[in-house]
Batch of 4 targets.
Target 1
Amino acid sequence: MTHHIKIPKGWEMPEHDLTPESIFMNRREVLQAMGWVGALSASLLYGCAPGSSEVTNAHPETNLTPLEKKLYPATRVTRYKLDRRVTEEAVAASYNNYYEFSEVKEDVDHHAQKLKTRPWQVEVTGLVEQPKTYDLDDLLKKFHLEERFYRHRCVEAWAMAVPWTGFPLKALLDDVKPLSKARYVRLVSFHEPFTAQGQIAFWQPWPYSEALTVKEAMNELTLLTTGVYGHPLPKQHGAPVRLIAPWKYGFKSIKAIQRIELIDTKPQTFWNTLQPHEYGFTANVNPDIPHPRWPQTKEKMIGTGEIRLTQLYNGYGDFVADLYS
Ligand code: MTE
């Protein structure tokens, strides 16, 4: 394989190097059309649209609730520029890290379908003026969804470029009003060892949890994510709601969030507890901090195999560098 090394030009990217968006948009129109065809055939077969509580999202692009049909695809925010082609959806959806279901990335897609993602609630609690529990549909109705194309960088030195849909975590935090003594935002996933075979490993600190400082959580890039590629998240990507913090290694971007707690001391997190020398708490993408197993100066794009030089903060320094000065 020939490796094509490309010097990135920062987060403002030359237009000619951008996503072949016409291709993406055409695919999206096709998917939307398929959604309509799917909905039409479902209503012909079953006489009415399925109720939201019965809907599974194994095939999220063709099996939307009426609310989701209204919301997806969301309007794209062009402020967050890509410097590379969007990863093919089929590639991104079949190469996943989700240790609750499998340690083999290519098997996650299959096993993750076992998780029941509706009904789903997210509890927001701890050091806040107004603790609240949101039903998934409450989140979708209350917060304005937008689409953002982000680079997605795993500590294992692979990368993708992904169109996520969601809303800023800040909007949710503003809704519950953090108290001034809150310092960290802890995010916790589900715990169902009978569903998720990985959680049988009782010696691991399940449920998966992650955390950000309140300042990081309030940063405009931090996205509470409900969709991808113009439709709701499929289960392997962390349905029904996950985090995306694109300037950090992917393990910070916790999937299937059930609880968000505001706390005043730095919490234990999943990978940092298991292997602290490999997975730091802050975990900002940084080519100058070597990892014991994966050199961090370069990254390989999944799908194309293209090799890129890794950028500090994954290229998002203009948005986040002042958090660390
Ligand atoms: N969230 C949970 N609950 N469990 C996990 O194992 N893996 C993380 C993160 N979120 C993980 C998780 C890791 S290591 C990465 S790189 C990203 O999810 C991968 O996201 P993707 O599969 O959507 O690309």
Note: Residues 27-324 form a domain with the Sulfite Oxidase; Chain A, domain 2 fold (CATH 3.90.420.10).
Target 2
Amino acid sequence: MRMVDLIKKKRDGGTLSEAEIKHIIAGYTSGEITDYQMSAFLMSVYFEDMTDEEITCLTMEMSQSGDVIDLSDIKGVKVDKHSTGGVGDTTTLVLAPLVASVGAAVAKMSGRGLGHTGGTIDKLEAIPGFQVEIPNDDFIRLVNESYVAVTGQSGDLAPADKKIYALRDVTATVDSIPLIASSIMSKKIASGADAIVLDVTTGDGAFMKNIEDAERLAHTMVRIGKLANRQTMAIISDMSQPLGNAIGNANEIKEAIDALKGDGPEDLMEMVYTLGSQMVVLAKKADTLEEARAMLEENVKNGKATDKFKEMIRNQGGDDSVVDHPEKLPQAKYVFEVPSKETGVVSKMVADQIGIAAMLLGAGRRTKEEPIDYAVGLYLNKKVGDAVKEGESLVTIYANREDVEDVKQVLYDNIEIGKEGVEPTLIHKVITE
Ligand code: URA
Ligand code: CA
């Protein structure tokens, strides 16, 4: 088989066989297929798309390209949750301890943030002492004993995806449904959970800018999950504006603590209960979504969710006193307000650009190697649909530098004040097949 013929076949709209896809993934992972040929192939997939069979085959080959984690030593159904990316998305930080508090096993592999999006692993590292890299044995033991552990992606999990993703990033081939679906699902399948709850985001802050594309991505991933014998479901959620109020690392930990105590922003709480109920049902800890939701709400009220978060922090070497004393989290030196220039209603907050404003402060990274500053970030005092008076603060900036004019400019450019603003629908759809 020659790679040039396979590129040509896809370029001309052909359908690749299982053997051909295997050849491409094995060849690229081992280095026999070059970056320039793979780039041409990815671009042909971008334009010509793939059939369901091709996407499934691509995903399976990528998931088996390195370590495949066996979680069968963990008792019961192991659930994982994955978001296709967002801004200020504090959901996982709340869900992991909350869902574990009702006895469902949460074995969570999370990533770091890149560009305008944040990552759960970075946020957890804002807690003094918290270890995100834990050996497999410890991970399994913690989930068995405490029902929850959160870890970073292990070294050799789906290396084909790691290589392909890096190439996509620099060849304008990230926003392709077959490539995103195979990238995400190959990692989820290799990391071993029995049940997967997907949050497919849509809007300015997401890869999928419209609901139709998000729906196709969701259906594709759910189908792949089922073919790989994993119970899989997806919700399609809005990411046109950031989720909740806090964007950053330490400040999102603080927001997660508030949410676990029942005091989180409304949109974040709704996401948490919607996704959490699905996770609890998939883990067979409740028969209906209503029953699951009631269990979660109860554990927020009685403090069990907060206790579970403390336990999770202790288990992974962190200082759990931050839960009752969030002032012990890294604090920024300077605080600035961004006053509204007019009176009206917030009509737009462009999620990805606001994520970039947080990144400029140091809360996120431009390149994979950049360090991040846990203390800095943004707090949105207003969200779309809120009334605002001239001079009232739209956003509070937490910074470790004295001059934040560049950040303010990005915020002013991307927050629109109009005569009216409609709060966007948060959850567009639930997809189970
Ligand atoms: N997240 C991933 O892991 N892969 C993609 O392709 C997009 C988002
Ligand atoms: Ca948030």
Note: The mean pLDDT is 95.
Target 3
Amino acid sequence: MTSFDHTKYTPFQPVVIENRTWPDQEITKAPIWSSVDLRDGNQALVEPMTVEQKKQFFALLVDVGFKEIEVGFPAASQLDFDFVRWLIEENKVPDDVYIQVLTQARPELIARTYESLKGAKKAIVHVYNSTSKTQREQVFRLGKDGIKEIAVKGAECVKEHAAKHPETEWVFQYSPESFTGTETDFAVEVVNAVADVWQPTPDNKIIINLPATVEVATPNRFADQIEYFCRNVKQRDNMIISLHTHNDRGCGVAAAELGLMAGADRIEGTLLGNGERTGNMDVVTMAMNMYSQGVDPELVLSDMDRIISVVQACTLLQVHPRHPYAGELVFTAFSGSHQDAIKKCLANQTADKPWDVAYLPIDPTDVGRSYQEVIRVNSQSGKGGIAYTLEQEYGLALPRWLQVEFSPIVQKFAEIDGGVVDAQSMKKLFEDSFMTGSTPYQLGKYDLTKDDIDTVNAELIGSENVQISGNGNGALSAFSTALGEHFGMRIDIIQYQEHALTVGSDAQAIAYVQANIDGDRFNGVAIHNDIVSASIQAVLATVNQKIA
Ligand code: KIV
Ligand code: ZN
């Protein structure tokens, strides 16, 4: 007998809506954003934020560009009360920013809330009560009329207090809490009643916030609820319809996106999604989703590392390495084929072309990440990633044939080492494998005579120095002949490539050589100011490997 029994749950009862229009809508404009980090996010923390942390977080929210910031629940928390007072008394709220505070629809709490807001330039008073069937029947033990009355009384109280402080620019906000668990017709009825009290106008709108306090269905059902609500509520044109989704089914962002398509104007959420249980809707993800579609999110998220650092410092929660757009690994490719595709696309990408890079929905540099992080090499990586790293970090443009040779060496190293092979280790591995032009023999003095046929005379320095000489068609061929004759080997150069490493007076060149020596293949690499010296040293490197 198991307690894992799905029959104890009942499916969500969707609202019936005909000819829904939201599936054909597109998000082409940013919503009004409201951050609830300092209220809903804070309420969900194991250790609520200190005043200092709230100050730091508030500064971040202002810099990111929020114009509406829910700063706390001052009637429920002395710390929140003090923080609101500090913001107002110290004049910390920019003129174009509304601070928002939450209160339950209870007269004594509303009174205390207004106390906290004395002297504010602009404020949103956010009043809520629960309207769902579950809460009505089991928590409040009230019928629909009783619940509606709480909302209406709260709305009246909010209005009365505001009238006593005309020096503040007030905006009223109402949330039928647990909206997703409320019969949508009843939510409309309660909101109509609240709007009748507040009497908004097109120039003085009220905010109606529809929360998925608990996410209970697929996002399309939520969008249906929003479209239905917008169609049926009485004073739609006098309202800003706001959404406040939570992430219980993992679809908080999707629900907000579809809800926006269904007619909402405003979105509440938190940076990186902290919030009750599985979190609030993540504003970073939703805004970056818009950004990646060419829509200005009207928030500045370019300094992602600062956002992460402040959020982590204030919430004491770590950002997951796979968190969309922000996690440490979200722009990183380990797989060889992905690395190869990214490398090719990045090489094609120019500033004048729309972004079109396989596996990278956005340009990592837009959020302060570097291309170095894009390609990280481990035992699953292929030659593309290895070549990319060596080129980016050290300017080594490995020819394809050498990439093919080097890749299994790196993979083997990664398997033994068990992790990511950083650029430095990769360079060392490269040098140890191919830049073997000094042991057992090193190139000493040499001269090259160019004629119909080229002649090389060279000294090799080792445990005992040797003189070699040979002829050939070009320096490489002459030097290979000289080496072959001296050591009794047959040396055929199969591949050769060179390129400049640096520009300017101390420009260096790198030569890559692949030689077949007595039937075995060896790869040699050498760097020198002079390309001929680099080339013959690369040949010597192959012979040294054969001797070793
Ligand atoms: O999740 C919720 O319903 C809330 C309300 C107070 C808006 O946080
Ligand atoms: Zn919430």
Note: Residues 40, 102, 128, 175, 177, 209, 211, 213, 244, 246 surround 3-methyl-2-oxobutanoic acid (ligand 1) (CB under 6 Å).
Target 4
Amino acid sequence: MKPTMPVGRQVAVSGIQASGNLHIGNYIGAIKQFVELQNKYNMFVFVADLHAITVPQDPEKLKAQTLDAVYTYLACGLDPKKTTIFVQSHVPQHTELSWILNTITPLGELERMTQFKDKTQGQESVLAGLLNYPTLMAADILLYNPIAVPVREDQVQHLELTRTLARKFNSRFGETFKEPKPLIQQPAQGWSASGGSGARIMGLDDPAKKMSKSASPANRIELLDSAEVIKKKVMSAVTDSGSEIKFDPANKPAISNLLAIYSQMTGRAVADIEKQYHGSSYAKFKTELAEAVVTSLAPIQEKYGKLAKNKTSVLKILKEGAKKAGKAAEATMKDVRKKIGLLES
Ligand code: TRP
């Protein structure tokens, strides 16, 4: 008798940008939630190195950052037993399908993408890779027939295009692709199918702007910052006038942001933290917030250190991941090649 197949989980796919300087804003807003999703979905997560090269990259840095992103996600709890982790360029079916999708993508659809317009604004010479970025992203997704795609809000338009291309392909060549739904980040509550933006983590030096990898270092706490640096950054974070420690983003944006960080890093409710610091000074609150951040990052930093010393084992994880992803991707491509009439080799 054949063993009964376990009931398959639904698939979710997402690509991550290897950008370096990953900070607690990235952790709270994305990485942490990825790690939670792997308990619900059969996840495919890859480092989008081929997307990275749509803007000029230093080859050595690109390589280092690709590996660094993998170390970081593994250190934060992405588990290769639950999630298929790989590097986009290791699965050549991504580029193959992207080419095929390009042949059914109207130029106008690509030209109207907000990200394309933003990235090329004021440029004299626009590279074709930037224009075709969304068809590669559509290929990344459609290869695995996922139900869900965790993305930031700014990627939703690309996902819409992916759905359009899936429909187009299906209507021309027969039912092949599912239309995946975005799972949009809502940092306060986790992922939601409905969209909207929750409490973002803002800059320590300017609570009106998102914490950012490209701003000055005082703006953010990086995941690998030392305890000393974290303390310094938290203590010099801007605060609001008054002295109350209260979550009130409209009137107390800086303190609200610090409370959000405290809550997200410790898993404690904001109300509970407010109560604890009722009547306390900003200085006391900040000192203990810094300690909480240091404590919650310690296990991540320790794991990162171990992984970075053991590159071979990480490369093995990526090899396994590419093998598994490649199998799923090749099954899709066999079907696609046949449907569009490419002669089998
Ligand atoms: N473009 C995405 C970003 O900027 C990264 C990405 C590439 C992606 N391919 C993907 C996300 C496929 C989801 C699915 O974040």
Note: Strands lie at 11-16, 42-47, 83-87, 148-151, 181-186, 190-192.
